[in-house]
Every structure is written in C-alpha cells, then in structure tokens.
Amino acid sequence: MLLVLWDVDGTLVRTAGHGRYAFEEAFEAVVGRLPEPVDYAGRTDKQIALTMLAGDDEHLPRVLEELAGALELRKEALRAEGYAYPGVAEVLEQLHGRHDVIQSLLTGNIQANAVIKVSAFGLDRWLDFEVGAYGSDPHEERSDLVAVACERVAAKYAKPTGAVLVGDTPLDVRAAHEAGARAVAVATGFADPEALRASGPEAYLEDFTDTAAAVAAITST
Fold first, then answer.
1. What are phi and psi for residue 29, nearest 5 degrees?
2. Strand, coil or helix: what is 185?
C-alpha cells in the first residue's frame, strides 16, 4: 500500500492570501501588533509563528489557537476568492479509486486549518485526515512529519510499502528525501521552477492537468 501525502498551499489549493491574513490577525490578537514580514513557503505553522515571535515560545500556543479561529471566520471568503488547482480533483479521485493507495495530507498547517482549506473546495472526500501529519503535531521539521504519517497509517490500516510526498517547494523535496520517501514536485506554487527541478525530485510536473501523467508520476516505484 502506497501512502500519498499531499502538501496543501501551492500544491492542492490557492488560498488568495487568506491563510496569511489569518496568521497576521492571530498574531495581532495575541501580541497587540502586526508581525514583521516572514517567509511562509514550505514552513510549518509553528516555525512561522516562532519566527514572528522572534523565538519566544511563551505565546506560541495562543497564536496557534487564534489561528484556527481566524481562518474559520474567513472560510466563505476563501471559498469565493481561492481555488483548487486545475486537475487536482481528478487526480485525487483517480488515486482514491485504487485499492493500493491511501491519501492524506502532510502540511505545515495546523490540522484544523488544513481541513478548512481543502474542504472549502470539496477535496476532503478523497483524503483520510486521520493518518496525515500537520503543523499542530509536536514536530517542527517537515521530514519528521513523514514518519508520523507512516505510523498513523500503519496503526489504522497496515504498514505502507512506500510513501510519496507531493509538494511545490524545494523544502518539500528535501523533507521527503530526509525521511526516505519519494518526492513529486509540482510547479503550481511560488517556487522558481528551475530551483524546484534542481532540488532533485523523483518526478517533476508543471501542473496536474494531465491526470494520467500525474497519477503515473505519483505511483511510480
């Protein structure tokens, strides 16, 4: 059984900035001011929050708590202004129909917000959130989250014969390789395509519009 782990932002969906706005609102609610600009791409919510807090983890739990509520309030705007990338639904549906594939998320988002983002566009029907790994798990590095997801799928179903991480940044590729998983990179996000290719994924896709090619790239051994 192959465990397919999907990144969310830049891979499955475009959130029209609402994830960032929710983070800024959560930080302001706790600290009383807007944060300095930070790099969000490929980082977990814990890493982003700690960067905003300049390493001071005293306020970290409250910022993450406020973050979930802030995005929930933006769900309708997210649905109206954001979108799932072309071809994503078709690829998820095809993989869901296979008996040898389990699909979930591996994302820096806290679990509540990951669910909000994919559910806003109807993608949740093909994903098993229980065996995913999230920014709300007690790990800061994405590579550690791969092992968390593998343990969860083993406990619920059976030990996976392999894992593949589908993401849009070189950090996703590095996380997969550090965890001994395959990496499929897709150039739908904000990463420079050449840098994404140079990061060494086992497969590289421009997008998901060719369903058969995407499924083949993800399930190749």
1. -65, -30
2. strand
- Global model pTM greater than 0.90: yes
Residue 97: is it exposed, middle or buried by C-beta count within 10 angstroms (0-12/13-18/19+)? exposed
Spatial distance between the Cα atoms of 42 and 107, rounded to a whole number of angstroms? 8
Which amino acid is it at 190? F
CB contact at 8 A, 220 and 166: no
* Cα dihedral across residues 84, 88, 90, 93: positive or negative: negative
- What's the CA gap between 167 and 181, in Å, rounded? 12
Radius of gyration of the chain (CA): 17
pLDDT tens-digit readout, 84-116 = 999 999 999 999 999 999 999 999 999 999 999
Domain spanning 2-14+83-219 has what CATH number? 3.40.50.1000
Q: What sign results for the dihedral spanned by CA atoms 176, 178, 182, 187?
A: positive
Do the beta carbons of residue 25 and residue 126 sit within 8 Å? no
Q: Which amino acid is at 82?
A: G
Residue 84's CB: how many other CB atoms inside 10 A? 18
CA distances from 202 to 18, 54, 70, 101, 218 (A): 31, 35, 37, 18, 9
Alpha-carbon torsion, ordered 156, 221, 87, 169, to 10 deg: 90
